[in-house]
Write a structure and sequence with these properties.
alpha/beta; inorganic pyrophosphatase (n-terminal core); Diaminopimelate Epimerase, Chain A, domain 1; 6-stranded parallel sheet; 6-stranded mixed sheet
Length: 338
């Protein structure tokens, strides 16, 4: 974002505005953390702000300060559409293509508001007047911290803002172990702790709330783990029947794909999760090094994301999706083989 754009935004934000903040569908820790952090910041500056999430999200994210203020589009469509229609500004956070907002996409496309995008995914669409896009950033939460700093308001980051930002950075960096975690990320995290983020409590709130059924589902997933050693690839499948057996709740499969990637010698991991309600198979992809799961997903599974972390979907059956995946892998033999 240029100095001119920052100056224009500061002028826009100098007087109270009606502002909507939107995360992507099926929001994760970075999406909820960044939107709530920006929400708190805008309230401090006397704006009429509202976070509208396309749909619900895991229970382990529902402890963040003022999380209960978030409006869910799928259960409050009329109210949400009115707020979107009346908005002066719309911030889209942690996504860069409007279709990622799910059923909200039509209302967002019809809005007369000025758009501001803050996001760290690759290949952003051209819908926002103000774009802060940086694929080298660890998380959108790190970018929101920088955004507030660019506006000259870093001194306004209080414990609520710091808590939300810390949660998002922690989850999107895999507790600070992913390659996108830079020295600047650590400096920001240190600043957030100084401003009131309780790092131990935040970690416990997200990672130490497992149900018995979730751990049983994890055991089922690990039992289903398959390895293709000659292509340094591992994959996991979970059928709808298996999800139902262990009383699957939203968020229960978060991070499971990383178990495949943790195997010695593996550089590419996938998980395929059957969703009969939507009649799709949801796919999460992870990699190490230069192998781009973003490009792989975009090319074959209607998705995208980052070089080392991406998502996708398939309209085929679970079995056919896995067979398609396996059939594609030899095309990447040079990148994947030993």
């Amino acid at each position: 974002m240029t100095a001119k754009e920052i100056s224009e935004l500061k002028t826009l934000l100098s007087a109270p505005k009606s502002i909507i903040i939107v995360p992507h569908k099926n929001p994760d820790g970075d999406a909820i953390g960044s939107t709530l952090a920006l929400y708190h910041y805008l309230l401090l500056n006397d704006h009429n702000a509202k976070v509208i999430a396309p749909n619900d999200y895991p229970g382990f994210l529902k402890w963040m300060p003022n999380e209960s203020d978030i409006l869910h589009y799928d259960t409050s469509k009329d109210e949400a559409d009115t707020l979107i229609s009346d908005a002066d500004l719309i911030f889209t956070l942690d996504f860069n293509a409007l279709f990622r907002a799910g059923d909200m996409v039509h209302s967002l496309k019809d809005a007369n508001a000025t758009y501001v995008m803050i996001d760290h995914h690759q290949q952003p669409d051209d819908y926002a007047k103000f774009v802060y896009s940086d694929v080298d950033m660890s998380s959108t939460c790190e970018m929101v911290y920088n955004f507030i700093d660019m506006l000259g308001d870093s001194d306004k980051i209080n414990s609520d803002i710091a808590t939300c930002l810390y949660a998002g950075i922690m989850t999107d960096t895999g507790s600070f172990r992913f390659p996108s975690t830079s020295n600047k990320t650590h400096h920001i995290v240190a600043s957030l702790i100084e401003k009131g983020a309780n790092n131990a409590q935040i970690h416990n709130s997200i990672y130490d709330n497992n149900s018995y059924e979730r751990l049983q589902l994890l055991g089922c997933a690990l039992k289903n783990l398959k390895v293709i050693p000659e292509l340094r690839t591992a994959y996991i499948t979970l059928s709808q029947e298996e999800l139902d057996t262990y009383n699957f709740q939203k968020g229960d499969t978060e991070g499971v794909v990383n178990y495949g990637l943790s195997l010695k010698g593996i550089i590419f991991a996938a998980i395929f999760i059957e969703n009969r309600q939507e009649d799709i198979v949801k796919i999460s992809l992870r990699s190490k090094g230069d192998f781009s799961v973003n490009e792989f997903s975009r090319a074959h599974f209607n998705g995208g994301g980052h070089t080392n972390a991406a998502g996708g979907r398939s309209d085929l059956s679970l079995q056919d999706t896995v067979e398609k995946f396996i059939s594609i892998l030899p095309n990447y033999k040079n990148a994947l083989s030993l």
